[in-house]
Amino acid sequence: MGSMKARVKWVENVCFMGESETGHAVVLDGAPEMGGRNLGMRPMEMLLIGMGGCTSFDVVTILKKSRQAISDCVAEIQAERADEVPKVFTKIHVHFVVKGRNLNPVQVERAVKLSAEKYCSASIMLGKTAEITHDFEIVEETDQVD
């Protein structure tokens, strides 16, 4: 997939509708003090979620290929932005909470590292302006219902 297209159409005030070439749509909006109605995510929030989705995709895929019994993966992302315009991300920390049965910490660490350094195009792009760090914790899957 060499090229990719997207379309963003103005709806009203600071509200826009983003459409992907795969046929999915998303609403972007600003805060009321910016003239928005808070109907959707801010574009910069979407960028962070895009990065989180991209790296999570890698981590889950790599762990499954390494035959790890993974049952859940949550990426908790904390970001800092510059005070001055352009308010780029300066620091992004991704904390993975990986759940499964007898997960091997070496394999989990390897998956996180491979995503960060080799596979996650979103992280690698954002890493040009932001210092990106990752860590993880493993939660053992139990049979009890919460």
UniProtKB/TrEMBL annotation:
Coiled coil: none annotated. It holds the Pfam family OsmC. InterPro entries: KH_dom-like_a/b, OsmC/Ohr_fam, OsmC/Ohrsf. Gene3D superfamilies: 2.20.25.10, 3.30.300.20. NCBIfam families: PRK10738.1. This is Putative redox protein. It comes from Novimethylophilus kurashikiensis. The lineage of its organism: Bacteria, Pseudomonadati, Pseudomonadota, Betaproteobacteria, Nitrosomonadales. The gene is yhfA.
